[in-house]
Design goal:
Length: 108
């Protein structure tokens, strides 16, 4: 579910509706470049997702592939963080790892 631009806006609206279920968690991943099809602005969509799920029910995962380096992986996280600037630093930390650690019962 973390690839919000792979579906149509109508399909995305259906996914947004799932936020009403407390047992759902949204994974944000594969944030597309605005210059690549489908050429929709991603910032408002990420804002919709964070407003709907909140930091306690949202996780981030992305930036990893066959050509990944330490620098590119850090860059992907920083790019994701740039779309979360409307949130507090604490909520950003939850989405970028804290919520996943809690969800998957990882110890701190």
């Amino acid at each position: 579910m973390g690839r919000p631009l792979q579906g149509t806006p109508t399909e995305h609206a259906v996914v947004l509706g799932w936020a009403r279920y407390d047992n759902t968690v949204m994974k944000l991943s594969a944030i597309p470049d605005a210059r690549i099809y489908p050429h929709r602005e991603i910032a408002p969509i990420i804002r919709q997702l964070t407003d709907a799920w909140g930091a306690e029910r949202m996780i981030y995962g992305g930036g990893f592939g066959p050509e990944t380096t330490g620098d590119s992986y850090r860059g992907a996280f920083e790019r994701a963080r740039s779309y979360l600037e409307h949130l507090t630093a604490d909520d950003q930390a939850k989405i970028l790892g804290g919520t996943a650690a809690k969800l998957f019962h990882f110890s701190a």
